[in-house]
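Recall that a protein's primary structure is simply its ordered list of amino acids. Everything else, from secondary elements to tertiary packing, is in principle encoded there. The following example makes that idea concrete.
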Amino acid sequence: MSGVRAASGRPRAGAAWGALCGVLAAFAGLAAAQLATAAVRPEASPVTAVGGAVVDRTPPAVKEWAVRDLGTADKPVLTLGIVVVLGLVAVAAGVLAVRRPRAGIAVAACFGLVGAVAALSRPEATWKDALPSLVGGLVAAWVLFFLVRALRRARPQGAPAGGTGSLDRRGFGRLVLATAAVSAGAWYAGRRLGAYGSAGATASRTDLVLPPPAVPAPPVPAGAQARVPGVSPFLTPARDFYRVDTALVVPRVDAADWRLRIHGDGVTKPLTLDLPELLARPLVEHDITLTCVSNEVGGPYAGNARWLGVRLADLLREAGVRPPSRGGPADQLVARSVDGMTIGTPVEAVMDGREALLAVGMNGEPLPFAHGFPVRMVVPGLYGYVSACKWLSELRLTTFAAYDAYWVRRSWAQQAPVKTQSRIDTPRPLAEPAAGRVMVAGVAWALHRGVSRVEVRVDGGPWQETRLADADGDDTWRQWSWPWQATPGRHTLEVRATDGAGAVQTGERQGTVPDGATGWHAVTVRVRAGDT
């Protein structure tokens, strides 16, 4: 410890310098890993790989909490948590290295091994995915060794040179700053190289011109949008469309490199298609509402868009596939994403006549990267986790008995038709409208069945029928509104819908697991006395 005392004059200060060395070593390791990641793929980044492994092993209840309470911030929060843990480990490794250099350096190197193991555990991983973490671990270990050795040999400022000392405290400070600067430069270079690597994908989307649909969607009825402030727009802009998936880094697929393989049980003519071949087929335009099985009653994870794509049933028939009702051996269509996600869809649902699409467009534009560019699945009437695979790369025909897709292995149901739901958009919870006429409005959906009625009640009183906006088919949500003569005080509003077959939405409360939430959405408001 004499070197530590010489460098700072106090053992505690030596520990603080050691902690700083550990943090700098970790930063250097991450910067080196970022450079290596640019040469492999974004998913190979140590933080991304560890984050993905954490997501895969997180209990369903914790995932539900994250989706419910964190929303789209769940991924940044997870990433921040990993960085915080890494920082704490780095501090511990630096402090340990001051007293026991070999042990501290071993801790730094082992963290690289953890990242490599996590990277290799990810779907679609190859041996190259381990390289960024291994490089980062080795660089972190070497930098920690270098800094701690310099710290232990440092002499007090003003002391004569000689012995083992080669730097005074000011010189050591300059060494720390130089290490930080070089690491920052390497990190920035890695980020820029990564951005350059995805530039081709960005350009391929910018340059993509979607062919006009052979079967265009009819115009949205003029009365489909309730003219009530605060209600959701009938067509959800792509920037506002919900996103729930496990990808910490959004895959950026170059359209020129995209391929889709269709194979498996009952496929007599396997197909491999590139994007020009897919776009050469007749395109269909259809308005479809999607919703996530994680959507709580009244939750935000639902959106409606105009999708453009190829009928999936036509492609399957071209490949020789028959649905189970016609003697086909496969009852499950397993879609695989470029990041390894698997989603299992009932073959019967895909081929029963509904507009199940391999979508290439959303609201008149190529799919955004966050929503699956260049190709994704969209199947009306099914929750997204069994129908809406993004960044599609493979379709395999199999059976539910033979294979469980990603979410099914994590306690969700194999098959999940969307349940009838309704939501109050306005007034918002805890709003304080003035007494008098208050417009209550929202959306309701019973996908692939249609909505025939929406009712509202106040404080448990009789149900009041609302005014329905015009319908745009059975595969989209439907807006509704009701003028309420509000009286001062605290009131609770509830809503329920009836589907096209006459089935009334149940009021029984059920959580999202295993196949979607049920219950009536309720909003409590406090009505102010009107102005006198």
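The mean pLDDT is 91. Residues 9 and 522 are 65 Å apart (CA to CA).
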